[in-house]
Amino acid sequence: MTNVLKKEDYIRAVPKEYEFKEKGILPITDELYQYILKVTSNEPELMKELRIDTHNNSQMVMQSSPDQGQFMALLVKLVGAKKILEIGTFTGYSTLWMASALPEDGKIIACDVSEEWTSLGQKYWKLAKVDHKIDLRIAAAEDTLEVLKKSGYSETFDIVFIDADKSNQSLYFEYAIDLVRSGGLIIVDNVLWGGKVIDTAHNDIDTVGVRSLNEKLKHDKRVEISMLALGDGVTLARKI
Ligand code: CA
User: Fold this and answer.
1) How far is the CA of 189 from the centre of ligand 1 (A)?
2) Distance from the alpha carbon of residue 110 to the mean position of ligand 1, in angstroms
3) Which of 8, 21, 62, 101 has its CA 20 to 30 A from that of 127?
4) Residue among 159, 179, 186, 161 at smallest CA distance from 79
5) CA 34, CA 127: separation in Å to the nearest integer?
6) How far is CA 120 from the centre of its chain?
7) Separation of CA 191 and ligand 1 centre (Å)
8) Who wins on pLDDT, 41 or 11?
């Protein structure tokens, strides 16, 4: 039982500023995060390889964590999704998790601008034998979204996952609202944007884009939302 945290280890892992009593929030230390992974993570070997391959090939911190991937797969099953739209695919790690959770006749339309990054994903989608569920569209996301809207895809997706350039966060959300069915789920990634959302020194277009959508959603009567401190922050929005 060496890999189970003992009570004294757990207490040591909790930071001094632990304010659970007052705020009902537990700050997640490295030790607690490792614990979460240890007791929950069931990341399949292929997904782990893709994650490491991405890490070795990219300087960018754009990839979802294993616990987030697993959470997305669970959402796919909870929603009973058959049609998913992914705006921003990168190396296809989240795509792989979601495709694996879809039924055999399920489909993901995956939008990205990069042949280079998505080709890494395509290799693993094939290895995992889920490539037939993924329809990759290489183009500016706005162009693909406009094509989908004009060709009868409005209100047809069960899940829309927004994880592309953050400056267009609000624009993609408007397309998502159009394209997702009533009762369907919009998942917005990186809503805490490395903490920059609360740092007034950061006013670049991406940070402003993330902040701007975050602040609008609370009063958006078209959706019910919850923001989770998972990964880099994830907002779930159910279309009413
Ligand atoms: Ca992301």
Assistant:
1) 5
2) 14
3) 62
4) 159
5) 28
6) 18
7) 9
8) 41
Measured CA to CA, the distance from residue 113 to residue 221 in angstroms comes to: 32
Task: Give the chain's mean pLDDT.
Answer: 91
Rounded Cα–Cα distance for residues 68 and 21 (Å): 27
Give the tokens for residue 21. Answer: 């009593």
Average pLDDT over residues 7-12: 51
Whether the CB-CB separation of 144 and 155 falls below 8 Å is answered with no
Determine phi and psi for 182, rounding to 5 degrees: -65, 130
* C-alpha 94 to ligand 1 mean position (Å): 9
| Cα gap 29→197, rounded to integer Å | 20
pLDDT above 90: percentage of residues in the chain: 83
Cα of 198 from ligand 1 centre, angstroms: 18
Question: Residue 22 above 80 pLDDT?
Answer: no
Let me know how long the chain is.
240
Structure tokens at 35: 């614990």
Q: How far is the CA of 63 from the centre of ligand 1 (A)?
A: 6
CA of 201 to the centre of ligand 1 (A): 22
Give the distance (Å) from ligand 1 centre to CA of residue 18.
28
What's the average model confidence in pLDDT over 138-148? 98
Predicted confidence (pLDDT) at residue 37 exceeds the cutoff of 80 = yes
| CA 82 to ligand 1 centroid distance, Å | 22
